[in-house]
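user: can you give me the structure for this one chain? tokens are fine.
assistant: on it. calling the predictor now.
[tool input]
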Amino acid sequence: MNKIIFQYVLREIMRRSVHEDIKNLETEIVQTENKIIEYLRTGYEGGIKTSLHRLDLDLKYLSILANGAPIDKNEDRKIMDFLRIHYDYMRKLSVPA
């Protein structure tokens, strides 16, 4: 009985941790996009390129995390919509080489 309770508690802790990681990544992605917009205004190309690279990595990590996360269908759809929207933003914010 204690083993079953322990497994349930452990699973619940992991689920909460994954949800927190997903929310934190979504926040970081939006913040990075805002930095890119600011760098575009000021013409700071080094910041743009670094931030675009960071944005790409964060989006990839969010995609990997969401695909392996124990989440329900509605939450998965929201995350996939978020990814689709922000990959599109990244494409629009990209600076030609």
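assistant: here you go. Residues 2-42 form the longest helix (41 residues). Residues 2-93 form one domain.
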